[in-house]
Amino acid sequence: MTHACPRLRRTAATATAVGILMAPLAAGPALAAPATHAGAAGAVSAGPARGPSPSPSPSATGFRALTPDVTRQLDQAVRQAGVPGVTVGLWTPHQGQYVRSFGVADKSTGQRMSPDLYLRIGSETKTFTVTALLELVDQHKVSLDDPIGTYVDGVPNGDSITLRQLAGMRSGLFNYSADEGFYRALTSDPQRSFTPQQLLGYAFRHPVLFPPGQQFYYCNTNLVLLGLVVEKVSGHALADYIHTGVLEPAGLNHTLFPAGAEFPRPRAQGYTDQTANGQVAPTADWNSSWAWAAGAMISRLHDMRVWARTVATGVFPDGSTMISPATQKQRLTTPPTTIPGAGYGLGIFDVQGWIGHNGSIPGYESLTIYLPSAQATLVVLLNTDIDYKNTEPSTLFGEAITKIVTPQHVFDLPAEPAAR
User: Fold this and answer.
1) Looking at residue 58, what is its pLDDT?
2) Torsions phi, psi of 86, nearest 5?
3) 306-317: string of b/e by CB count within 10 Å (b at 16+)?
4) What is the pTM of this model?
């Protein structure tokens, strides 16, 4: 379930590939250290340690101050995760900040990982697509309780599946990325382009899994349908609507919705074993049209820091309203899933108090979450989606980091996806 773009199909990595990924991460430049004043932004040079300091207990907000000792614990936890490269950002207004990059962005050149690199963010795209939909709800152009059949023809149970159920992963539709024919088509030619209608075709050849609203089932098909709704109602391409309606007012100048294989530089190379032969392959040139409204977007660390708070609060950085409070309340109503402690609202998770989403697309994983009680933001960007010890890497990082800084709020969403 935690694969924000659920894994297409898990194939076993070879021993050679696992050996490469299990090598300890070498630290990149120390790009930020605990801030000494509230609201510090940007990178702060890490000065020399002044000797050990006690590890404080969580504050009233549930967040431990990012002292030198806590920073060392974070460094150790991140280095041990066994991935090619990772960038981690952790920010609070009063307890300090931590920004580090470890490992390599490209194994062939030895380029170091750094916070200014673009990476694919997988199903964090879902938060943008649903935001676009909710903006149209606030404009009274659609209702969350409209049936999808009003906007898209040929949807199984289309007269009874609502937009709300699609956004909340409770439609009962089959996940197209779990279809064997789709998997073969993608992995046999990763540069091929897919249309939304082709993706829906893979899903609709399967019977519905359950009546609408009865269960939670994480499904990319839902978001493709919502993307088509946004296009039909707004009269604009989804990428254009998200750019003008969400990215520009949020100030996300380094976030984009590619049409295919576009990937700005500087970028991190991605590594996956979701290939036709199960061998590890680079993925930066793969065409992401297959993920479209469910997972095609690209971003960088700073933009995702801004987005974490924006999507969790419904308020743009300048204080203006992105989503009305009433609609945002509906978004953050997160009924339980099958995972204890994890709820899912309208395109957004609540895991032990952390609000946000994660992403997984061949070669990349990400995690962008916000803890309202501490006004804390955590962003993790990775250039691999290969499991480490049977766990997806973004889950390893989320759990390891939050165990240190928010032991009362551990992001422990298991790696098993709801759909393969």
Assistant:
1) 54
2) -155, 145
3) bbbbbbbbbbbe
4) 0.88
